[in-house]
Amino acid sequence: MMDFFKKNKKIIILISTVLIIIAICILPYILTDTAFILSWDMRTQYSLFYENLKTAFETSIQEGTLPFFSWTTFLGNNFWASKLFYYHDIFDYFFTVFKNLTYSQIVMIQTVIKVMGASLFFYYYCHIRNYSKNAAIYGSICFGFSAWALDSFCNPFFLSFYVFTPLYFACIENYFVKKKISVYILVTAFLAITNYYSFYTLSVFTVFYFVFRYYQINLKFSGLIKCSLPLIGAYFIGVFLSGFALIPELLDIIGNSRLGESSSFLVYDSIKPYFAILLGIFTPTSLFLNHSLEFQSVFETISSNNTVLGVLCWAGSIHGFLIVQSFFSKKRENKFILLLFLLLLIIPLGSSLMHGFSEPSFRWTQFMVFFTIVLTLPYIDRIEIINDKVLKWTYIIGAILMIMLPIVIHNVTAPMEMGFPIEYTRIVLVVISMTIAFLILRKNLEFKYIYLFTVLEITVVAFYSTFGNPYTKQFSNKTVYGVEHVLKDKNELNEYLYTLDEENRNQFYRIYVPASAIYWDYSTNLNLNYNFKGLMSYDSTYSSAILQMNEISSISTYLAWAFDIQDSNLIDYFSTKYAVVSNPDQLPHQNFVEVGIYNDFSVYENINYQNFIRVYDKAISLSEYKKINDSSVILDTLIVDDNMINELSGYLGDSNFEGFDWVSLEQNTFVGDIELKEKGFATISIPFDKGWKIIVNGVEVSTYNVQGGTLGFPLEKGYNHVEGYFVPSGFKLGVVVSLTGLILFIGVVILQYKKNFSK
Predict the structure, then answer these.
(1) Rg for the chain (alpha carbons), in Å?
(2) Tens of pLDDT along 114-151?
(3) CA 299 to CA 651: how far, in whole Å?
(4) In what order do the strands lie in the sheet with 592-598?
(5) Which of 83, 306, 466, 536 is a good FRET partner for 561, with 20 to 30 A between their CA atoms?
(6) E strands within 437-543?
(7) Of 388, 382, 342, which is closest to residue 362 (Cα–Cα)?
């Protein structure tokens, strides 16, 4: 046993250190019965999307289908493509089996696993690179608790990708040493599925990393392309393997309103990003972001397109000093890569490129943090090579800027009326921490002092980034339970409504719930918790077609992806049958009658309700509608793009404002019957998506984007049996691509096996 501990002493120290730091962050939440809900997005999106994921999985198992479509997300959407693109958290899959754990408990456990995983994978990377064990445990702690990682405690799905970054680059290092690519293929495929949003940035960063390492190993660029070809091939095989997810995602992303938008090109609109970049390596930004403190605005910029710009480059004060040492070293490649990072940071176009040619964002710096930590590792074993002059000037300039700039920037951008904000003491603590780090490096102290100081510093920063932050401990578990059960448990409201009207089982309807009165303004996605179809949401992964509804009547609120349908005509158009309110004044219009009491709330029925489908006998163009600008038109007139008016007018005939006689929904399908005296053109109250196949009386019909982004199709005279089947656009092609990737991967494995066997 003693031999085991001696042999694995360093990794045991690493694991113990991670557990101690994370315990200091998380145990206070447990001991004080405080919910581990650290941010606005966690309470408004992540926790509810997790419940939606559980519901989707349960339904998939029951029906033997894949979770392609969600009826309960805002107006219904392509669940498969949209959630894989952005809010997909691979760790959530494994926790859906734990039915009795709350989301707060699940995120706590996941955070421990993720931070531990990030640290251990970084340790493994250092092992592959032959760094000393001292350097490895130092770098692992810095990476596991960098400002980027700590800030991502509030954004769990970003942290899920961050965890595997060292493993990905370790696979590239294995290629340099052993020329093996099979594991790299699998890791690439896994990360592509894990989060396309981050995978795109990783793909760009891979080019930087490979060129840098090739030159570092060979001290020349000749032969670079030849060396890179097998790895490029492996990358594309990995991408092919994930085609069943990637291709539907790509087709869905194309319509997202945030793609291709950028408020800045060469210069930022505010001076604050430049300030944050200047002090980024010495500022533990997680101490200031998500704090609702006066100084938060100094370190955070919100662009005109509502993207938060916060520089999260800190990984300890010693790390900051050593980055500067690396830049001023004799290694040209270090200067080049650090200047490249700086260029990408200071020019908005650079961060736009790293953000998928959209609004500039600094989220890509997760990979820069990894890279800069790696650059500092050689100094951990050889403190004596530190340039004393550079060290002194780094400290002097850094300390002066840290003391002065926050006050200057704060007064320029948000003048103080009552003296220094109290959180300026945090700036003072940062400078004190810088001073201690400077003295440790100046005195060439042993590694144990470097490690001990780094651990203590990170522990303090980690605590004040979590439980020590008033903003991240707003809610008790009792409060969260109360708001998440204000309408009782999942499906209980649905069951109650069945008792009011047995026909509800054969109808499609939405339920109006005022957020302030019923949900305590906690979230607009709580309908996902109760599993009913609602009329509001805060969701970046909405169905993009529905934004066109804003041309008829506004459905977006304070953000392009924050929705709340209040227009009385749209309430009727989207098949709203019930309203749950605490006061009649909260009803969306007067044609609601009280039909029951549910959990002390009044339940009203909409006498204007229509079952899922409307059939029109007249149409106008969108340009004509804009002259009228009366949303009631949507209830009896088809509104179409100007270039479609002639084509669709040929389908008009009968009108029907009663809806389906009956309709049945399953996860990815619907079936309903309706009878018409003449042919007609119908719309159903879900967003248009090319993934829908509509069959009328056994014949597939064309679908159209009409009525402000909803789904339309023609019907026949007489009886119409309508079937709708949803498969994400591009999914079938994606499966073919994945199978191609699988065949190629098997071929690679066989070739590598033969090569090894011949040796």
Answers:
(1) 29
(2) 999 999 999 999 999 999 999 999 999 999 999 999 99
(3) 57
(4) 510-512, 576-581, 601-606, 592-598
(5) 466
(6) 510-512, 536-538
(7) 342
Output the CA torsion 95→99→102→107 (10° steps).
0
Cβ neighbours of 312 (radius 10 Å): 26
Which residues make Cβ contacts (< 8 Å) with residue 209, sequence separation at least 6? 169, 172, 371
Task: Round to whole Å and give the CA distance between 46 and 104.
Answer: 11
Q: Which residue has the tokens 């009329």?
A: 535
Reference 617, options 652, 648, 649, 647; nearest CA is: 652
Q: How far is CA 537 from CA 523, 561, 564, in A?
A: 8, 8, 7
This prediction has a pTM of 0.93
**Two tokens at 621?**
């163009």
Tokens of 273: 């990003």
605: phi then psi, degrees, rounded to nearest 5: -110, 140
Contact 603, 595 (CB under 8 A): yes
Q: Determine the Cα–Cα distance for residues 453 and 450; give it in Å rounded to an integer.
A: 5
pLDDT for 633 equals 95
For the chain, which residues make up each domain, given as ranges?
A: 262-445, 483-606, 613-727
The type of residue at 139 is: G
Outline where DSSP puts E strands in 207-320.
301-302, 308-309
What is the rounded CA–CA span in Å between residue 690 and residue 701? 12
Q: Residue range 457-473: average pLDDT?
A: 92
User: Residue 48 carries which side chain, given as an amino acid letter?
Assistant: L
Scan for tokens 């390596």, then name that residue.
Answer: 281
Sign of the Cα torsion 298, 559, 480, 516 reads positive
Distance CA 172, CA 724 (A): 46
Top-confidence residue, 315 or 7: 315
Distance CA 259, CA 541 (A): 12
* Per-residue b or e along 497-507, where b marks 16 or more CB atoms closer than 10 Å to that residue's CB: beeeeeebebb
3-state DSSP assignment of residue 710 = strand
Per-residue DSSP letter, 309? E
